[in-house]
Amino acid sequence: MLKRLFAVRATNATGLAETAGLLFDQGYNCAQAVLLAACPESKAELLEIAKSFGAGIAGAKCLCGAVSGGVMALSLQGKGKQSAQLVAAFRKRHRMTCCAGLSKPYQWKSDEHRSNCRVLTVSAAEIVEQILKGSPIDS
Questions:
Q1: Cα–Cα distance measured from residue 50 to residue 130, given in angstroms and rounded to the nearest whole number
Q2: Is residue 81 part of a domain?
Q3: Residue span of the structural domain in which 37 resides
Q4: Which letter does DSSP use for residue 132 in this model?
Q5: How far apart are CA 47 and CA 91, in angstroms?
Q6: What 3 state SS string does 4-46 have?
Q7: Total-model pTM
C-alpha cells in the first residue's frame, strides 16, 4: 500500500487536501486518505487500522471515516486536543458528521456516492491542514 504514495507524490500535489483526494482516487478509503496525506510516514499497521474506520467505522455508517482519519492524523501530529475543532468545522460545512446522513442521497458504492465521499475526504483534509498550520478554519 505504501508504494502507492510515491505515485501520488510524483503528481506534485500542492497540499494535504489535494493529496488526500488523489489517495482516495487510488483506492484508499476516506480515513486512510486523510491519515496518509497528513502523515505520509505512517506505517502499514496504521493504515490497516484506519481501513476499519472507512464507511463510517467498518460499514456501520456512523462517524464519517474522513473525520476519523483526521482525528488520527491530528493525534499523530501532537494536535489531538484540537480534534473537536475538526469535528465542529466539518459539521458546520456539511451539517453533520454521520456517514449515513452524509451518504443518504446516494446509492451506496455508486459513482455518485464515491464522488461525494471524495468531496468529504478533501474537505476533512483541508480542515486538518488548517489546524496543523494554525490557520483560521474556513467554513
A1: 21
A2: yes
A3: 2-133
A4: H
A5: 25
A6: HHHHHHHCCCCCHHHHHHHHHHCCCCHHHHHHHHHCCCCCHHH
A7: 0.88
Helical segments of 26-110, H only: 30-38, 44-51, 54-57, 65-76, 83-94, 99-103
Which cell is 133 given? Answer: 498550520
In a domain, 138, yes or no: no
Residue type, 116: N
Could you report the average pLDDT of every consecutive run of 10 residues in the chain (139 residues)? Answer: 44 80 95 94 86 87 94 95 96 95 93 96 96 88
Average pLDDT, rounded, for the chain: 89
Q: Which three cell numbers stand for residue 39?
A: 502523515
> Minimal CA–CA distance to 138: which of 81, 67, 95, 89?
89
40, amino acid identity: P
